[in-house]
Specification:
The complex is a heterodimer of chains A (142) and B (112). Chain A is an alpha+beta fold. Chain A has 3 helices and 5 strands; from the N terminus they run E-H-H-E-E-H-E-E. In chain A, strands 1-2-3-5-4 form a 5-stranded antiparallel beta sheet, covered by helices on one side. In chain A, strand 4 and strand 5 form a beta hairpin. Helices cover 39% and strands 33% of the residues of chain B. In chain B, strands 1-2-3-4-5 form a 5-stranded mixed beta sheet. The chains are: A alpha+beta (142), B alpha/beta (112). At the A-B interface, helix 2 and helix 3 of A face helix 2 and helix 3 of B.
Chain lengths: 142, 112
């Protein structure tokens, strides 16, 4: 399958468009319910971060999603028009001192449900790799 | 996300359905804020019909808890389905929220 591309305004109403398009391309893979959940979650966290934090909910700014379905994996690339962020500086929300903070779990969940999460240096582009040849997604430690 | 709300004594029970995540429900957040302003501080969230939870959904619950706790209140969670429960487990929030298997247990414990 070739790379597919979706460009959306930075508004949450467009999240469903992305999800439906991606899941449609995965229909013939007969993924388990758990795998579908993992794909939805990792992708949603990445796109939501791009909309909220990258583009500051400015609908004039775009989020670009590229994805490709291989035999054994699906790859996503999510880019925003923001300046990026220091993804290494995000505190671990599972640390006792951060456990009750009401923010900061998007990155954790991406890493928990995708097999690889790779940011560019600036932090305004992320690649997610999700293997389709195993069904143990969601059971990785955070 | 859809929701209904009911009062059970001094507890506010919210039955949520669908996706608990982004975008947050501004209407729900306004209602919850209004509840707190009126002195309501005990909340039970029934998630039995929630099939998808994201970090924004967790954020809403934690923010409410942070506002209710200083007032002597709390937020309880009921009936988390398998995959949403994984989210609570991955984030260790099963250690932060009291989680019950059914609504009546959550309400009984409050009365005890």
């Amino acid at each position: 399958m070739d790379w597919q591309k979706i460009v959306i305004p930075s508004h949450p109403s467009f999240m469903g468009v992305v999800e439906r398009r991606v899941l449609a391309c995965l229909e013939d893979r007969e993924l388990s319910e758990r795998q579908v959940f993992a794909v939805r979650l990792a992708l949603e966290e990445a796109v939501a971060n791009a909309i909220k934090h990258g583009n500051k909910m400015d609908p004039s700014k775009k989020v670009t999603i590229r994805f490709k379905v291989d035999d054994d994996k699906v790859l996503f690339e999510v880019s925003d028009e923001g300046p990026g962020f220091d993804y290494d500086a995000i505190p671990d929300p599972t640390d006792n001192e951060h456990l009750e903070l009401p923010y900061g779990r998007g990155l954790l969940l991406m890493r928990a449900y995708a097999d690889q999460v790779i940011f560019n240096e600036a932090g305004n582009h992320v690649q997610l790799v999700m293997r389709l040849d195993k069904d143990c997604v969601g059971e990785q430690t955070a | 996300m859809k929701y209904t709300m009911e009062q059970r004594g001094d507890m506010t029970v919210l039955h949520l359905a669908g996706k608990l995540g982004f975008p947050k429900s501004e209407e729900l957040e306004r209602e919850l804020s209004s509840m707190l302003d009126r002195g309501r501080k005990r909340f039970v969230f029934d998630l039995s019909d929630v099939d998808f939870v994201t970090s924004d959904g967790l954020s809403m619950l934690l923010s409410l808890r942070a506002r209710a706790a200083p007032l002597g209140g709390w937020v309880r969670i009921v009936c988390i389905r398998n995959h949403p429960y994984d989210i609570f487990r991955q984030t260790r929030l099963v250690e932060v929220f009291e989680v019950f298997e059914d609504l009546e247990s959550a309400l009984e414990e409050a009365d005890a």
